[in-house]
Write a structure and sequence with these properties.
The protein has 105 residues and is mainly alpha-helical. The chain has 3 helices and 3 strands; from the N terminus they run βαββαα. It has one domain: Glycogen Phosphorylase B (Rossmann fold, 3-Layer(aba) Sandwich), CATH 3.40.50. Strand 1, helix 1 and strand 2 form a beta-alpha-beta unit. Helix 1 packs across helix 3 and helix 2 packs across helix 3. The longest helix has 34 residues. It is globular and about 55 Å long.
């Protein structure tokens, strides 16, 4: 994974994009379709790129932009890492609070 420059998810359905956050924590930006399960995990143009849902040409174009645009890839990588860290902290806090609440119900 150390040499990975990008992750793409060409699926048009997703329950929850935790894998996007996990990959972003490694500093790897993602190119995905704009689908409901990924909206919270992605900030289009800032942390990752979203293609129009089901539009393969748009998806490919965005992948090429990241791979060819060294500066874009570095910018996305840096911001994705920062944003994923914020989400991971929030999710960790939520999990702890949920455990405590369940214990005392």
């Amino acid at each position: 994974m150390r040499r990975t420059r990008i992750l793409t998810h060409p699926g048009v359905h997703e329950d929850r994009g935790l894998y996007v956050i996990e990959v972003n924590i490694s500093g790897i930006p993602c190119v995905i379709y704009n689908v409901p399960g990924l909206w919270d995990s992605v900030r289009d143009g800032k942390t990752n790129l979203q293609a129009k849902n089901g539009n393969i040409e748009d998806l490919i174009g965005r992948i090429v932009n990241v791979l060819d645009g060294h500066r874009l890839g570095k910018k996305l990588s840096r911001k994705a890492l920062k944003y994923a860290g914020q989400l991971a902290s929030w999710m960790w806090s939520l999990a702890i609070c949920t455990k405590i609440l369940k214990r005392y119900q």
